[in-house]
Every structure is written in C-alpha cells, then in structure tokens.
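We include the pair:
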Amino acid sequence: MPTKHIPVRTCCGCGRKSDKRDMVRIVRSPDGTVTIDDTGKALGRGAYLCEDPSCWETGINRNRLDRTLNTMIGSDQRTALLAYAEEQKPDWVA
C-alpha cells in the first residue's frame, strides 16, 4: 500500500522545513488584510510559521512575513499576530 503524501512547508521565521499540519498559516487575502488561516485553505497568498514564539517574533519584527506575503503589515495587524502567538504559546516555553 503506497504511503500518503504529506505536504512540507518552510517557516519564514527560522527556515526550518516541517509538515504543513505542524505549522500555522498566515494569509494575505485579495483585499489586503493579513489574518491567521485556521483551515489552511483560505484564498490568498500564504506564509507559514512554526509554533515556536521566537519564530513569530523573528518573522514579524524582521519583516520576513512582509516579504513572504508581498505586503506591508500594519502595526495593528502585527499586534494581533503577536497576541495570537502569545496565547498559543506551548506550556513547555517559559
């Protein structure tokens, strides 16, 4: 029986490759808004970040997410993304 293909994506924060399901997708919709895509199927250009909070800080604060999504992320959207990362922080991170 053949094995099922598992999509691999690259984190724009650290550059590590991992399964698509292990990462969080951020999408720039056609109207220009940047949001978290919980379904992984939202329409628009997507970028992926690991669940590691340092990847989120690197990706957002060093404009790597901006370059990947081909847009300028506003300060309110940056704040919302960092807040999402903070509330999703795993228990093992102090």
User: Anything to note?
Assistant: The chain has one domain: 8-87. The mean pLDDT is 90. The longest helix spans residues 75-87.
